[in-house]
Amino acid sequence: MGGKKKLTISQAEKAQLREAQKEEGKKSKTSQTSRTEKKIAGVIPPNPKDEKIIKEIQKMKVLTPYIIASRFNLRLSVARDFLEDLCKYGLIARVSSGVNTEIYKPL
């Protein structure tokens, strides 16, 4: 009736070869490569009064929490707070804000 049909001899040989190569590949990958460690995003924001930070921010055309988080390796929530602090100090200005994100520009 129904069910899987029997493979031909050549198809069975090819499947067996593929499986053997797959097993061999798994063994070599695990032994050769070490596990890559995941970078943990920082919780402490950089000092907003630091000259290096100010110069780097002045180079950017647009500032969003995602850009700041990826540039300085921060969490998004920390990047949002950092941008609000910069806005309070008068280093950047808010251009637009939506429900989920704000867009800033350097002054």
Q: Tell me about the biggest sheet?
A: 2 strands, antiparallel
Q: What is the first-to-last residue Cα distance? A: 76 Å
The helicity comes to 40-55%
Hey, roughly how much beta strand do the residues contain? 5-15%
CATH superfamily of the domain at 51-106: Winged helix-like DNA-binding domain superfamily/Winged helix DNA-binding domain
- Number-wise, the strands total 2
Strand order of the largest sheet: 1-2
Low-pLDDT residue intervals, each spanning 5 or more residues: none
Overall mean pLDDT score? 85
Q: What is the CATH class of the domain at 51-106?
A: Mainly Alpha
Account of the protein in words:
The chain has 107 residues and is mostly helical. It has a domain of 56 residues: Arc Repressor Mutant, subunit A, CATH 1.10.10. 51% of the residues lie in helices and 10% in strands. The protein has a two-stranded antiparallel sheet with strand order 1-2. It starts with 8 loop residues before the first helix and ends with a strand. The model has no long low-confidence stretch (mean pLDDT 85).
Summarize the SSE layout with pairings:
Elements: H1 9-32, H2 51-59, H3 65-72, H4 76-89, E1 92-97, E2 102-106
Antiparallel strand pairs: 1-2
Helix pairs in contact: 3-4
In short, what is this structure?
The protein is 51% helix and 10% strand. It is built from 4 helices and 2 strands. Helix 3 packs across helix 4.
